[in-house]
Amino acid sequence: MAKDKITPEDEKLILEAIKEAEKNTSGEIRVHIENHCESDVLDHATEIFAQLNMHHTALRNGVLFYVALKDREFAVLGDAGINAIVPDHFWEDITETVTEHFRNKQYAEGLAQGIRMAGEQLKAHFPYNAQGDINELSDDISFGI
Question: InterPro entries from the xrefs (predicted)?
Answer without folding.
Answer: TPM_dom
